[in-house]
Amino acid sequence: MSSDVVLAILAVALLGFLIMVVWLVYELRQGNVEGSAALFGTWIALTIVSIGVEFGVAFVVVHTLLFALGTTAAGVGLVATGVVVFATPVVWALVIRHRARRLHAAQ
Known about the structure:
With about 110 residues, this protein is an all-alpha fold. The chain has three helices and no strands.
């Protein structure tokens, strides 16, 4: 597979990710997401998509670090990737919980 095809696939995946995140955040801001099941579903969807994109970006960044700066820099990149991946569900949970509380208080 040529590099142009890979870049096109990555661009389409990134565009899809951005559209999904914008749509979910819009629905959350409009107050269309109600109930714990809907909030949990929103959290799961945002977390899965975010981690998928993070792994894709980390793959490119860590390999660039490996070939440009060596194994130590790549190791630091892997540790940073781990921190970001483990923080993602917590961050999305806090964002969604904060937004749901604000919507509930406004009603």
